[in-house]
Design brief:
By secondary structure, the chain is α/β, with parallel strands linked by helices. The chain has a domain at 6-17 and 75-122 and 136-228: HAD superfamily/HAD-like (Rossmann fold, 3-Layer(aba) Sandwich), CATH 3.40.50.1000. It is built from 10 helices and 7 strands. Strands 4-3-2-1-5-6-7 form a 7-stranded mixed sheet, with helices on both faces. The longest helix is centred in the last third of the chain and has 16 residues, at 205-220.
Length: 236
């Protein structure tokens, strides 16, 4: 089997989903004190690891209540086709999220979408329905305060495969510095532009698929049609 020409690392909440899933769960199911914790995180007083560790136990109703709320969460309608295209092209598609693995797997399965890997935090439930969160992928050197250290995942040795990173928010800030091709929107796009970090703006996964298709055709030497995409940088 030939080695992949690119490996795609994609955020989930707000990138694959329409809106932030954990925010929805907290709004609908948690004690209102979660907002004070959120404010501490937004002001930089705590990292997302501490934020989530304090917020998740505030969710009432256990997994059953979460599962009911997930019925109202939609994926970006262009993501399933993008995931299928990645599979057809032999490009590994990995979800790298500071969210909840069980939530991610549930939403992907409901949409009949398969990916190559999911890196995320783990949700635990006690017999009484009390929820807690575990962080199996923390920063190895302790410098990253996120629940999941995305830069640690993305920086893994991938041989000569191009590291493509897709994201939208604060959890993607550190991972963005390890991307060789970064697709950004929302808070991540603002962050990158303010700091001069090279990135390609995107609106949906059709934009990304077309950009990667052009790149693959150029690599193969079979490029026939130039698709005008202002999001595509020349750095590739």
């Amino acid at each position: 089997m030939s080695r992949p020409r690119a490996i795609i690392y994609c955020d989930f909440d707000g990138t694959v989903t329409q809106g932030d899933v954990i925010d929805v769960l907290l709004t609908e199911l948690a004690d209102q004190s979660w907002r004070e914790i959120e404010a501490d995180w937004e002001q930089g007083r705590i990292g997302s690891r501490e934020c989530l560790a304090r917020q998740i136990p505030l969710i009432r109703g256990g997994w059953l209540a979460i599962e009911q709320q997930l019925r109202h969460i939609a994926l970006d309608p262009t993501f399933p086709a993008f995931a299928a295209w990645c599979k057809a092209e032999g490009l590994p598609l990995c979800i790298v999220s500071d969210g909840l693995e069980r939530v991610i797997n549930t939403l992907l399965a409901r949409a009949h979408v398969t990916v190559d890997a999911v890196w995320a935090n783990h949700l635990d439930e006690s017999p009484s329905g009390k929820l807690a969160i575990r962080f199996p992928y923390p920063s190895l050197d302790g410098t990253c305060r996120a629940g999941l250290c995305k830069c640690q995942v993305i920086a893994r040795n991938t041989g000569d495969a191009l590291r493509v990173v897709i994201g939208d928010g604060r959890s993607d800030w550190c991972g963005a510095t390890h991307a060789e091709w970064l697709f950004a929107k929302s808070q991540l796009l603002v962050y990158c532009r303010a700091r001069g970090i090279a990135c390609s703006a995107f609106e949906d996964f059709d934009t990304i698929r077309l950009a990667l298709t052009n790149w693959l055709e150029k690599k193969r030497g079979t490029h026939r049609t130039v698709v005008a995409l202002s999001a595509v940088t020349d750095a590739q």
